[in-house]
Amino acid sequence: MSDKYTFLGHGVHQIDTGGQTLLIDPFLTNNPQAAIRADQANPDFIFVSHGHGDHVGDTVEIAKRTSALVICNAEIAGWLGNKGVTAHGQHIGGGYHHPFGYLKLTIAFHGSGLPDGANGGNPAGMHLTTNTGKKIYIACDTGLFSDMALYGEGGLDLAVLPIGDNYTMGPNDALKAVKLLKPKHVVPCHYNTWPPIAQDAEAWAARVRTETDAQVHVLKPGESLDL
Ligand code: NI
Ligand code: MN
Question: How far is the CA of 55 from the centre of ligand 1 (A)?
């Protein structure tokens, strides 16, 4: 049984596995790249990587409408709880067996302040082992770090990496990340949403093809990859 990854624009992702839908960082309203509207999202679970507005996005509205359980760090879980949203708090290095698979929070070098100025704890990425055995690493917003090699050790079917620069890794560091992670498939994200993160993803993809064994896929918002 195959799992499906869908890029929804900027840092928004969806994973469909075993009849469950996991929506990641659902910033849809006011996202120039969004492939769907917030009222079209119908997840069973939502993962929020950090507190920034372009990641928390429409989480509260979608979670209330769909009753999706939100998975995030404990500080953001508390903030969401105060807004009437049910959230499951985890922390970096900690994994949990959710109905769709084992999700572990990874380190991410970034900020995490919430839109209203509340403390959003530490930013995170996610490493997911689905119930069908696929391993997916979504770095979310981060700079490059050499421990990415550890996240790749068990083998990765897919890595999703930011290439936008300015706020996260740029193309050069994202290429180094591919070399550390050694994923089977890699997808770039978090670029071209706004002028400060404009990048030529096809040029980056060409370098990945030349310098690594990874299969790189430059997905347009709304496009999917079967794993
Ligand atoms: Ni951010
Ligand atoms: Mn961001």
Answer: 7
